[in-house]
Design brief:
Uridine Diphospho-n-acetylenolpyruvylglucosamine Reductase, domain 3; 3 domains; Uridine Diphospho-n-acetylenolpyruvylglucosamine Reductase, domain 1; four-stranded mixed β-sheet; Uridine Diphospho-n-acetylenolpyruvylglucosamine Reductase, domain 2; 18 strands; six-stranded antiparallel β-sheet
Length: about 300
């Protein structure tokens, strides 16, 4: 990438970030910020340290017509090999404070957490404190914000969700009604700032052992998931398991260049070495085509394409 053109594009962003006292890094390679380890240089990544700074940053970027996206952990992002003309916003520098608040007349707790918090860390911390409902997320690669934006159904997450804050039109807004959220579509791009989740008290030693064992089992599984990115496609296709559809088509271990369908989970793609995004995209198209020929079912991509 031409450094002068990069700095020219990034200058309005660096000016905004300097004005708001937000940390920013220009010309970052997305291969270092995605689970799959592919992607070219992005104009800049901004790191607000407070929800208020994040909201002001979004407002200024929108005012300047500068495209932006939420970065999260990069587990659902497929960044192109070429220059990526947008700004990524990361919440990783927000203060990582977990608040377990009392609920009147109940032994359960209301957990408050910021949107950039890693979902697996939240699941582990919840069980360690003697509460359950999130343990099935111990192997999850993403963030709390990503799970909310995608309306994640696994592990009782959505039923535990009591409310969240997000940035819309440069203002911090709250959703405190699950039924309302269920019917709404958050516009893209969207920045989830924080959430409140209702977790339930584990009432016996047997229950604690059971939920702790679930966490340990999933953490062991996660060591395999960390080798790649996924789910690549929506997890259900006509009520059927996508990973099973891909596996039944004989595609576990199928590869294009250094991009390969994972053997531990056919809805994951792993980078065997120095894969290019073009190889990943070719692999995705071939999998879609072969599954369609084998089962007649069209798979829908679950990854974000950044270009």
């Amino acid at each position: 990438m031409d450094m002068d053109s990069l700095m020219d594009r990034a200058k309005p962003v660096t000016d905004i970030c300097q004005q708001l006292e937000v940390a920013v890094r220009c010309g970052q390679k997305m291969k270092n910020h995605t689970a799959l380890g592919v992607g070219g240089e992005i104009d800049a990544i901004a790191y607000p340290e407070t929800p208020e700074a994040a909201a002001m940053l979004v407002a200024e970027l929108d005012k300047a017509n500068i495209p932006w996206s939420a970065l999260g952990r990069g587990s659902r992002i497929l960044a192109k090999d070429q220059a990526i003309n947008r700004i990524a916003i990361s919440l990783k520098l927000l203060e990582e404070v977990l608040l377990f608040k009392d609920i009147e007349n109940r032994e359960d707790k209301l957990v408050q957490v910021h949107g950039g918090y890693q979902l697996s860390k939240l699941a582990i911390a919840t069980v360690e404190r003697g509460f359950w409902r999130l343990e099935n997320f111990a192997s999850h690669l993403g963030t709390v914000g990503s799970a909310i934006y995608r309306k994640e159904q696994q592990g009782l997450f959505m039923s535990a969700l009591k409310g969240f804050t997000y940035v819309c039109d440069g203002k911090i807004k709250k959703i405190e009604n699950y039924e309302l959220f269920e019917k709404m579509d958050l516009k893209y791009p969207c920045l989830i700032l924080g959430a409140s989740l209702d977790v339930l008290k584990i009432k016996s030693a047997y229950g604690q052992e059971k939920h702790s064992s679930t966490v340990k089992r999933l953490l062991k599984k996660r060591r395999e998931d960390l080798l790649g990115t996924g789910p690549v496609f929506e997890e259900k296709a006509k009520s059927l398991s996508t990973r099973k559809l891909i596996a039944d088509a004989g595609l576990k271990g199928f590869s294009c260049g250094s991009a390969m369908i994972a053997t531990h989970n056919a809805n994951f793609i792993v980078n065997k070495g120095n894969a290019a995004t073009t190889e990943v995209l070719e692999l995705i198209e071939q999998v879609k085509d072969k599954v369609k020929k084998h089962s007649g079912i069209e798979l829908k991509l679950a990854l974000e394409i950044w270009e």
